[in-house]
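Aim 2 progress update. The chain analyzed this quarter is reproduced below.
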Amino acid sequence: MVACVHTGTLAGIESVHVAVEADLVRRLPRVAVVGLAADAVRESTERVRSAIVSSGLEFPKLRVTINLAPADLRKTGTGFDLPIAVAVLAASGQVPADSLSRMSCVGELSLDGRLRGVPGALPHAILARRLELQEIILPESCAAEAAPLTGIEVLSASSLLQVVEHLRGARALPRAVATNEAPLSRAADLSEVRGQTMAKRALEVAAAGGHSLLMVGPPGVGKTMYLCRGAPPVPASLDVEGR
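Predicted structure tokens:
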């Protein structure tokens, strides 16, 4: 039986739909991942195997083929761990396959079955709503980011076993709750920068996606000014070089 789980991969600041398909065949045990997967995605099979066994479930002793569709889209990140695990469990009959058509999930698995947060919780939830799914399951550590979103039920999970119990109908997952954080200061912002549309766009994309940013130019062109106008902080490394 082939099982399919909805998920997404980040492309800039948006999430692109990916269908994770799992097929089991009675051949020598082996796990193959196809569909233009990056190294981090291919390595997920070892994390998934350990997480399933550590959760008291059974990893099928068959040939497991994981297809990430569409096959021409590059898949990156560790967020495929949870959907791959759920697809394998559904294909082996350990969770009901009919419960997968209404949900999406994203998350990284530790070897003991716990869920770790992944970047892009809000874009993934927006994608699930656009696909008209009923719910999305996110790791507890990042689910609050997507909690304010309306039109879809954002659920929070801390382990693979909790997700399995939810899909089996044994214990429902709690809804994610938004955290009450202090608003950012808006004393100054990029609206004070006249022109320089491409430079401001680069700052916004770097801040939103957590990318590194290299600013090169002679003294006086405005490199420091961009960073002092209240632009959102860039989580990754920031290099400013004057020539």
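The CA atoms of residues 121 and 206 lie 17 Å apart. Helices lie at 39-42, 44-54, 81-91, 121-130, 160-168, 197-209, 223-228. These observations will guide the mutagenesis experiments scheduled for the next reporting period.
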